[in-house]
Amino acid sequence: MIQSKIHEIRGYRVMLDFDLAEIYEIPTKVLKQAVKRNIRRFPSDFMFELTSKEFTNLRSQFVTSSWGGVRYLPFAFTELGATMLSTVLKSEVAIDASILVVRAFVAVRQFALNPPINEVKELQKEVRELKQYIEEVFTDQNDINEDTRMQLELVNQSLAELQVKNRALNKPRNPIGFKI
User: Which phi and psi angles does 76 have, rounded to 5°?
Assistant: First the structure.
């Protein structure tokens, strides 16, 4: 569930403030206030605020949205920023949720580094290789057929020449001697 809330924005994998607030079981307003009170803990590679264009593009990726109206643009927290939230939000739920968030980010990173083998692509590759092999076999067979055809033509030509010679040899000869 948490992994589905990780988005790629500006080349970072991030979670948005309202998703984190839901996970930490606090209102988004409280989360934002805690971040603003401790802004030094959140440099730009830990957290940044989305532009209105980024937020609009992100919302358009989802067919149905339960985000509702938003007065302020959301904060986007990287893995490091989401971890830092647990130090700002001091509750048992925050600690447990932080562990889950970090595990989700790690799982997404592992998935990106080691994607599962796509069976369809593997099958397509095997079919391509088989098709190429069959074409090579047919090409070889056609070459053999062509060679065989040429040899048969040579045999037929030789037979025809022998028949011509044989006819020449079997011509009726003029009889030799006297007529009685």
Answer: -110, 125
